[in-house]
Specification:
Radius of gyration: 34 Å
Strand content: 5-15%
Number of strands: 5
Mean pLDDT: 84
Structural class: alpha+beta
Number of helices: 3
Number of domains: 2
Helix content: 40-55%
Low-confidence stretches: none
Largest sheet: 3 strands, antiparallel
Order of helices and strands: EHEEEEHH
Strand order of the largest sheet: 1-2-5
Shape: elongated
Amino acid sequence: MRAPSFALRLLPEEELIGDPRPEACVEVSFGPLRPERDMVLFPQPVRMTPADLVRLRMEAELVLGEIRAEVLRAEIAWERALGEWYEEGRAAIEARKPDEALLVRVLEGLRRDQFIPA
């Protein structure tokens, strides 16, 4: 299972004493962005209010819902197109008359090479 890429921490009251924004009491820490050689980069933690955190969660859910809906629409369109291609191919094969001249030549060639008795 993949480790979480971010962590939430409610700042204790002692850390907020004298802070210019004590209402921003939630700290969001992010995991490593990308390894570079032997170094791993960690972005700075972000502080926000609980209301901002709730708003962020709601907006993220809305965006993920839109992405899921778009994936579902694309999947349905693909299945529909695949079904149409299948039906078109099937109809083309069923409607096609065999090329009798080609079949005669194949049979004559097989008889000539004695694969089929005359």
